[in-house]
Design a protein that fits this description.
The chain has 390 residues and is α+β, with helices and mostly antiparallel strands. It contains 13 helices and 13 strands. The protein has two domains: 46 residues, Alpha-Beta Plaits, CATH 3.30.70; 331 residues, no CATH class. Helices cover 30% and strands 20% of the residues. It binds flavin-adenine dinucleotide.
């Protein structure tokens, strides 16, 4: 029976909840705002299934990708975080009769996995939602679709992909998995508190968020909140470091305990394709370095390679890159991020604070300013380098 005594050993993928034959496991929220499985010993039959499908208890070995590419889908980048690869992949899959699963905002601004069967529906999945998504409701749906001979593309964090594979058992015909590069996921409970505080402050309902608003610059993206007030829809743009929720995410303060020792990154999720941001574009693929957003695509399997090649035939702009150069300065691919010294103290105070926005702001530290300055200098220097080369 699954019993979580060390929270760093549960990634919250929900494979155990879905696999339990007697439905004795439920997800319960903890004080930090993350969900953990809790088994009822009175119902448990000790079959051990929950443990056999756990990607933390049964980690895969690291594996290198078959190939790495810089890529951009010029046609459909709006609303995406990097080069818009995801909607292009998913669109192609749907046109060929498949069903796509990915993370979307719900009506109440919580984040969960949903199915999409038409290309227009992909709008909901576009863009990074920096909140742990709840995939619980869809694992069984995916299994049933595959059993009936359907085709499924499932996108999510590496731990969700690993959990889905473990839940499904031996590889299922018709499934393609795409993981996003991920350095960690913030607490849904904290996000919900933050949304309520924002709504109180601005006197309206939060209708949409873009955590990666790159309308002015991809590298120095901002955060955009759409708030519905009695007077109409109001958009609030701020730089990423001026928003405390985003700043604390970038400082790795609000991540799930398991993210600091991720069991599924570095090719361990078993995904066919990995999508990330090519932050080191100036070095890895200078011809893409125009601050409009470039994806780093890791092709991990032959299945992934076939899908990716079909996109290239359809006109995807792509360049083979050296993987080691491409992943430099990207914590989504490199070593696990470190637990910030004040993380425990921060989470202890989130319930007692009357002004959660002010409280969060008080933990935004200048390390992040250093990071901004570093990035600005880096962009400036690569600009100079380009001018000299020309
Ligand atoms: C929590 C989180 C941390 C990340 N950290 C890094 C990082 O350190 N380095 C890096 O290079 N890239 C990171 N990314 C991924 C990156 O920001 C882009 O999402 C990715 O490059 C795909 O971009 P795109 O332009 O192709 O498509 P987009 O349209 O931007 O991507 C949409 C895809 O992301 C999925 N997605 C969005 N939010 C979530 C979520 N909360 N949980 C699961 N899946 C989600 C959707 O299902 C969809 O498949 C992170 C993303 C998230 C959500």
């Amino acid at each position: 029976m699954i019993r979580i005594t060390d929270k760093s050993l549960c990634c919250g993928c929900t494979a155990c909840v879905n696999a339990c034959p007697v439905q004795c496991i439920v997800m319960r929220r903890d004080r930090e705002g993350f969900d953990y499985p809790v088994a009822n010993p009175d119902i448990c039959i000790n079959c051990g299934k929950c443990e056999t499908v756990c990607p933390v208890l049964n980690p895969r070995s690291e594996s290198a990708p078959l190939a790495a590419f810089a890529a951009r889908s010029e046609a459909d980048m709006e609303g995406c975080s990097s080069g818009g690869l995801f909607p292009m992949l998913a669109g192609k899959f749907i046109q060929e009769g498949g069903v796509v699963y990915g993370a979307a905002f719900m009506e109440d601004m919580t984040v969960g996995h949903v199915d999409v069967t038409d290309v227009d529906g992909l709008e909901r999945l576009k863009g990074s939602k920096y909140v742990q998504s709840d995939p619980y409701a869809v694992f069984e749906e995916v299994r049933d679709l595959l059993k009936d001979g359907g085709h499924v593309l499932f996108a999510g964090t590496p731990c969700q992909i690993a959990g889905l594979h473990d839940f499904l058992g031996e590889r299922k015909e018709g499934l393609i998995t795409v993981d996003i590069a991920c350095h960690g996921v913030p607490a849904p409970g904290l996000w919900e508190k933050y949304v309520s505080a924002l709504e109180r402050r601005f006197g309206g309902r939060l209708r949409d968020v873009s955590f990666r608003d790159s309308s002015k610059s991809w590298r120095h993206y901002g955060v955009k909140f759409d708030i519905q007030t009695e007077d109409g829809l109001y958009s609030r743009h701020v730089s990423n470091m001026s928003d405390p929720y985003m700043a604390l995410f970038l400082q790795d303060m609000t991540l799930r305990p398991s993210c600091y020792s991720c069991p599924a990154r570095k090719g361990r999720s078993g995904s066919d394709i990995t999508l990330g941001d090519l932050w080191n574009v100036s070095e890895a693929a200078p011809e893409f370095d125009d601050d409009r957003g470039t994806s780093l695509v890791l092709v991990n399997t032959a299945v992934g390679q076939r899908l990716f090649e079909s996109l290239v035939k359809d006109g995807l702009r792509v360049l083979a890159v050296d993987k080691e150069t491409a992943v430099k300065r990207n914590s989504g691919f490199a070593a696990d991020v470190k637990i910030p010294e004040k993380r425990e103290e921060f989470f202890k105070g989130i319930h007692s604070s009357k002004d959660i926005i002010g409280y969060m702001n008080s933990y935004v530290v200048c390390k992040s300013m250093v990071r901004i300055i570093y990035e600005k200098v880096h962009t400036f220097m690569s600009g100079i380098k380009k001018k000299i080369i020309r």
